[in-house]
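Recap from last week: sequence in, structure out.
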Amino acid sequence: MTTPTSAKRPRVWVIGLDGVPWTLLQPWIDAGHLPTLAKLQAGGAWGGLRSTMQFLTAVAWTSFLTGLNPGKHGIFDFARRIPGTYDQELTNAARRSGRSLWRVLSDAGRRVGVVNVPMTFPPEPVNGFLISGLDTPGLDSSYTYPPELKAEVNDVHFIAVSTVGKSHEQYLQETLAGVDQRFALLWRTIEREPLDFYMWVEMETDAIQHCSWHLLSDPAHPQHDAILQVYKRIDRHLARLVEELPDDVTLIVMSDHGAGPIEKTVYLDRWLAQRGWLRYKQGAGYSLGDRARRVTRVGVKKTFYLAQRFLPVAAKGYLKRFTGAHAALETFIEKTDFDWSQTTAYATGNFGNINLNIKGREPEGVIEPEDVDRVIAEITAALYELRDPDTGEQMVVDVMRREEIYHGDMVDYAPDLLIRWRDDKYLATTDYDHDPSGPLFGVKEKFGRHGAAYALDKTGTHIIEGICILYGHGVRKNARLHDANLLDLAPSILHLLDAPIPKAMDGRVLTEAFLPEIADRAIRYEEDDQTIDGGSGIELSAEDEEEIRARLQGLGYVA
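Predicted C-alpha cells:
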C-alpha cells in the first residue's frame, strides 16, 4: 500500500470495533484464532477501556468523539426527553453539544477522514471528508461531506445488516459479507487523499453478539461459532492493514463498550406500576379518543406481527417502508396510557433509567420539589431489594442520581436516576401491553417493536468495559493501560498529533502508552476553549427520524 502523507509529521488511524470485549478477545487471541490482534497486543499498549453511563452506542460514541461527558454533550441514549414535556426526540449529531475530534483537528489545520462512526449524521463540514454511520436515514440521504463524495462510495457503503425475518445462518452469512464490504470502503477511503487522521468503525461485531451470544454455549448449533467467525474475518482483513502500516502512523483499535449475556429482562415500568409509582388510565380515565387509539395499537401490532412472520421476503421489504409510521403511531398512543396526575416515576431506555414527575418541571408533575429526595430514597431502596427469582441474588448494584455522574450544561436532558445491574447482565425493557399484573421478568427479548416477529432473539447485551490497543509510531511495546477511559482517547489522539486539546475535554492523555519523546512532551491546550459549541445545526425531517427509529428498533438498540 502506498498511502500518501500530508506532511512529515505523525498520523493516527483509529479502527473502531463496536462492542468488542476482552472476555471474548483474550481467549481467542490465546487460542491462536486472531493472529493479527495478537500481534498488535504483543507489540503495543493495551488494556480495558471503561465506557460511559449508560454504556450505549449513542452515548459512548458521542463521548469518544467529543472527549466530553454526556452532561456536556447532551446525548444520553438514542432518544432523550425534551425538558418541560413528556416527549422524546431522537438524538443525532445536530442535537449534540461539543465539537467533534475531527472538528478540533480541522480547526488546527489537520486533514481528516471519518467513515461510519455512529452519531455523525447529519455530516458536518470538516477539513477532509466524512461518511456518516448508523444514524443515517438511508443511502438516498445526504450522508457525506463533501456531498459529491457520495457518488464515489454509494456502491459499497451500507448502513446495517437487517435482522428482519432471518435465520441465524442467513444473518451470519450476510454479516460476514457486510464485514468484507466495510473493509472495501476502508481501502477506498483510506487511500483517497493525504490524511493526518483517519477513523473507520465496524458495527457488525456488536450486532452479531446481540443475537448470537447464547450460541457460544451451544456447540451442537450449526452457528455456535458465529461471533468467532465474524472476529476471524475482521482479523484477516486487519492483517493487510498492519502489514502495510506506514512507519509514521499510530494505530488505535478500540471499542465503545463490551458485551455479555442477557440473564433476564426486567419490565421496569411494570415494576414501577406494581409499587404504585406509575399509574395507567383505567375505565373512565380513557376518553373516546384514548380508547380508539388503544384498539388501533392492538390492531397495528397484530397486523405487523403476522405480516412480518408470514409474508414473502419481497413483501416484507415493501412493508418495512411503513415501519416508521408504525413507530410514530406507537409513540403517540403510549403517552395517552399514563395517568400523569397519579404517576410519580416512569422508565425510559433499555438499560434502566427512571424519570421523576416533578411539579413545576413536568406539565402534570405531582412530586413537590421538597419531596424529591424522599422519593428518590424510596425508589432506590426498593430497587436494591430486587432479587433474581432463580438465584436470589441482588440484581441492582448501584442507583445513581444524574448529578452524581454527569456535569455540564446539558444535564437537564438526562434521566433522573440511572441503574447499574449486577454484572451488566439484566436488560430493562418496556411492557407494551401496559399490564401491571403481569410478570416482572422475562427470559427472551425480541428484536424490534414488540418483537415484531423477528426471527432472532436478543441474547447479548452491553457491558461497561471495552478494549483499547495502541500500536506503531510512538507506542511502547507490551505496555499495559491502567484505568483507561473512553474519554481519554480524544485528548490522547490530539497529543499524538501535537494539536492543542480543548480545555473542556474530560479525559486525560494516556502517557503510559507512549515512548518518552511523546509521553514527556508538554501537553498543549487551546487558549480559547470553544468545545461546548458544536453540532451541525441541521435538523432532521420527521421522515428521516422515523426511518432511523425503525432501524434502531430492528437492531435492538431502542425499544
